[in-house]
Amino acid sequence: MHAWLCENPTGVDALTWKELPTPTPAAGQVLLKIQAASLNFPDLLIVQNKYQMKPELPFVPGSEYAGVVEAVGEGVTHLKVGQAVACLSGTGGFGTHTLAAAKLCMPLPAGFPAVDAAAFIMTYATSHHALVDRAALKAGETVLVLGAAGGVGTAAIQIAKAMGAKVIAAASTDEKCALCQSLGADATINYSTENLRDALKTLTEGKGPDVIYDPVGGEFAEPAFRSIAWRGRYLVVGFAGGPIPSLPLNLPLLKGASLVGVFWGDFARREPQANAAMMAELAQWYGQGKIKPVIDSTMPMADLKAAYAHMGSRGVKGKLVMVN
């Protein structure tokens, strides 16, 4: 097998494409032949030693991937050789093969292509957990999605619309706003050229959004929170925009609003049955055509460093997927 090996987490340039012995699955594991692996923001942080999870060196990055089971370890009964699965394990995806814990593998129904499957779990699980579980979103409510043209943002638009909500999508270019409208967003805000608070006031007739989905952080967090509706829920999803913002705590008090943390990974670990039920619902929604990953582009696995550069340019709409 071959894989991108991180022996020193000083950044993307330190990754090397190496031939490695193909491993044998231990008890509870499966060996997967990887067909596709998506690039997520944590995949950049982890090779820079900036992610909360710090794997033992050396490691193969690539948190999310899809492929075919080539061998099963002792005790694995729900997966068979030749079965198509998707997996989010945190590492291992940027190669031709990997070992994965069988319990982390999501069996794929017929007609679920590997490229879509590799771009599915992290964004849709995060967005479903955020909007359904943490925000208790109701039909008819208004959701503001920040960073709406990215991976989790596009998933959030689709899930909110599937739940009957009104969606205001905020993004940094007119092209990204057009993408959001094509996914069902009811209105868009280009926050490079428009004042976020003024636009929200106009679009919500002064009421403000009921739910704010924020995977960006940075400079827009405070003005967005100042615009939130009474009893609004502000979802803290991530900080792709850079600095972790500091919000004045009088703002939740004045609006009777909630500041809600979203950590899907720990939800999946602590509440596995609830997570499994959620994933089953998402797979069903995919089959019904309610949700579908937005693929910016696919690139050969050998071009991983170029893919990282593309992601770093903030020009990505949806997900980048590496293919073998």
Automatic annotation (TrEMBL):
The lineage of its organism: Bacteria, Pseudomonadati, Pseudomonadota, Betaproteobacteria, Burkholderiales. Residues 11-322 form the Enoyl reductase (ER) domain. PROSITE patterns: QOR_ZETA_CRYSTAL. SUPFAM superfamilies: GroES-like, NAD(P)-binding Rossmann-fold domains. It comes from Limnohabitans lacus. The keyword Oxidoreductase applies. This is NADPH:quinone oxidoreductase family protein. Its EC number is 1.-.-.-. GO terms for molecular function: oxidoreductase activity. Keywords: Oxidoreductase. Pfam families: ADH_N, ADH_zinc_N. It comes from the Bacteria.
